[in-house]
């Protein structure tokens, strides 16, 4: 149990790594976890690609190009310490997602406690020609060990051409702080800028390569990158998420798709993620 407690506390510290330093690690770091195994396999560098239902999470401006209804779910045993799950759906111009994380019982020095929190996302986006505009509204709530809430709004932009896509997401541009009994946590403004190259030489065959910078104008910039190749219903991916290498595979059967991602870490256990997608 002591090992589990140490891993859990280190994980919470890792989730607090955002673009600017603050007095406390950001407890709403649940929004730094992916809702898509496909995007995770590409190192999370998805703000410029955002071409499926995970645009709800990564870049809501991409919803302007969604032309069907889709539902997806993801589960992960994060860092071999906590359970993380998400559920999201998207349709043209609109989408929503629910995120949940639960540590289970953790034995401390004197008592047993648990860490439970969740997040909700409502996104909208539309496009005028090659330019898409969108916004992501996030609500955070922790129920254990403290019952607290907070919200933030993230405007987004996406430019799409046949060969190149450019994405921008300003995280926490407007927000309501999270008030704890002992302190108040502000949402840290953070800018994501990405560019993606998309090639489709024939029907059902293609390559996507993307690079993304986060917090480029802060004291702690981070770089993400991903590569994906697909042939009909099969896809393979590799990426770098700022902390380690990532890998992924996909299999699609008509309107059903299974995505798997493997995320490597140095100081933490590696993580497997699996997401299921349904397209209607």
Written description of the protein model:
There is one protein chain. The protein has 280 residues and is mainly β. It has one domain (2-279): Beta Barrel (Porin), CATH 2.40.160.60. Helices cover 8% and strands 55% of the residues. It has three helices and 19 strands. The chain has helices at residues 2-15, 37-41, 55-58, and strands at 70-78, 82-91, 94-102, 106-107, 112-113, 116-128, 131-144, 148-160, 164-171, 174-176, 178-179, 184-185, 190-202, 205-214, 222-231, 234-240, 245-253, 256-263, 271-279. The strands form three sheets. It has a 14-stranded antiparallel barrel with strand order 1-2-3-6-7-8-9-13-14-15-16-17-18-19. Strands 4-5 form a two-stranded antiparallel ribbon. It has a two-stranded antiparallel sheet with strand order 11-12. A hairpin with a 2-residue loop joins strand 2 (82-91) and strand 3. The N and C termini lie far apart (44 Å).
Strand-helix topology:
Blueprint lengths: L1 H14 L21 H5 L13 H4 L11 E9 L3 E10 L2 E9 L3 E2 L4 E2 L2 E13 L2 E14 L3 E13 L3 E8 L2 E3 L1 E2 L4 E2 L4 E13 L2 E10 L7 E10 L2 E7 L4 E9 L2 E8 L7 E9 L1
Antiparallel strand pairs: 1-2, 1-19, 2-3, 3-6, 4-5, 6-7, 7-8, 8-9, 8-10, 9-13, 11-12, 13-14, 14-15, 15-16, 16-17, 17-18, 18-19
Under CATH, the topology is which?
Answer: Porin
Strand order of the largest sheet: 1-2-3-6-7-8-9-13-14-15-16-17-18-19
Shape: globular
pLDDT averaged residue by residue: 86
Q: What distance lies between the first and last C-alpha atoms, to the nearest angstrom? A: 44 Å
Structural class: mainly beta
The CATH class assignment is Mainly Beta
- Note the run of SSEs as H and E: HHHEEEEEEEEEEEEEEEEEEE
Total E-strand runs: 19
